[in-house]
Design a protein that fits this description.
Layout: E1 39-40, E2 57-58, H1 71-79, H2 82-86, E3 102-103, E4 106-107, E5 111-115, E6 121-128, E7 134-140, E8 143-151, E9 155-161, E10 168-174, E11 179-186, E12 189-198, E13 203-209, E14 212-220, E15 226-232, E16 235-243, E17 249-255, E18 258-266, E19 272-278, E20 281-289, E21 295-301, E22 304-312, E23 318-324, E24 327-331
Antiparallel strand pairs: 1-2, 3-4, 5-6, 6-7, 7-8, 8-9, 9-10, 10-11, 11-12, 12-13, 13-14, 14-15, 15-16, 16-17, 17-18, 18-19, 19-20, 20-21, 21-22, 22-23, 23-24
Pfam families: MORN
Biased composition (Low complexity): 31-47
Keywords: Repeat
């Protein structure tokens, strides 16, 4: 399996702030869910791969009564996709220790896994969070840190965690949006280079900022259209090349998803325009050529010839004229 980059800029990584939307630990499980602990097999050395194959729960030597996940946890797991469930650590039937481990008076009713000499969560473990979501993976100083997997009713994330947050390289399946992200994340939001794949086949490869497409990238839609260029706040903004589902091609400047500024447009029927655009329409100075030989070099307004320009007809005869709303109103020569 390909190794993942574990280099972090510690100064720039976020800390866990209250009210950030990431769930806190579960203080108490539902009634009837106080369960005995299975024995943990000794994990191998920590790996940077997004894999949990070296971490299993040893149920063979455990003779205690086996019980199911708490009902709230099962609801979460049922909402996760089948692939995510297949990739879970081999849990058997999930049980939580009845002999509660304590650290500074805190009782880990929501956790079983490895503890250090101070009874702090360090190593590999599984934790049920207050909202019923689950984290499984590596802990450091009591927090999610290293490689882990987070499962909630709306998200399944597998990858790097730092200081309790999903930050670094990883894969996120957004169950609500029905899309999959693969790349770099900050606080469980795509941030940096990332690939987004929709369930309908549409795909984006490029840059994100705080969960929003921003920077350079390429979007390919399932209807055959595509855009390659610059984005800002999720919209086409700056220099780019757009091909629509009909085969029309535009190469030039964009503003808020519209042709805006200098650009070159080639329609499927062979007509071309090179010049200025405003809010998606030909406006200002521009040159248009038609497949039948017609030619116009002059001023445009609202997608129509408007102002003074040179027009060449099908016979090749050139005229300098004044136009208004696409119609010639006066010859100037």
């Amino acid at each position: 399996m390909k190794e993942m980059d574990t280099n972090f800029d510690l100064a720039s990584r976020p800390t866990h702030e209250k009210g950030s939307g990431y769930p806190d630990e579960l203080e108490d499980l539902p009634k009837g869910s106080t369960l005995k602990s299975p024995k943990l097999s000794k994990p191998s050395e920590s790996s940077t791969d997004v894999s949990f194959e070296d971490y299993e729960i040893d149920l063979e030597n455990d003779s205690s009564e086996r019980e199911e996940y708490p009902q709230e946890v099962m609801k979460v797991l049922k909402k996760a996709d089948e692939q995510a469930l297949e990739n879970l650590m081999k849990l058997g039937k999930f049980r939580i220790t009845s002999n509660l481990c304590s650290s500074n008076g805190e009782k880990y009713k929501s956790y079983f896994g490895q503890l250090d000499s101070n009874e702090k969560r360090n190593g590999r473990g599984i934790q049920v969070l207050k909202d019923g979501s689950i984290y499984e993976g590596e802990f450091k100083n009591g927090k999610h840190n290293g490689i882990g997997r987070y499962i909630s009713a709306t998200n399944v994330y597998c990858g790097h965690f730092y200081h309790g947050r999903a930050t670094g390289k990883g894969v996120l399946q957004d169950l609500k949006e029905d899309a999959k992200y693969k790349g770099y994340f900050k606080e469980m939001k795509p941030d940096g280079k990332c690939t987004k794949i929709h369930s309908n086949g549409s795909k984006f490869i490029g840059e994100f900022s705080n969960g929003v497409i921003s920077g350079f990238g390429k979007y390919e839609w399932n209807d055959g259209s595509s855009y390659s260029g610059q984005f800002k706040f999720g919209l086409k903004e700056g220099k780019g090349k757009d091909i629509d589902s009909k085969g029309n091609i535009y190469d030039g400047q964009f503003k808020e998803n519209k042709y805006h500024g200098k650009g070159f447009l080639r329609l499927k029927n062979g007509c071309t325009y090179k010049g200025n655009f405003v809010n998606g329409k030909k406006s200002g100075k521009g040159v248009c050529q038609w497949p039948d030989g017609r030619f116009y070099d002059g001023k445009w307004e609202d997608d129509k010839m408007d102002g003074i320009g040179v027009f060449k007809d099908k016979m090749g005869k050139e005229k300098k004229a004044k136009f208004s709303q696409g119609k010639m109103i006066a010859l100037l020569e």
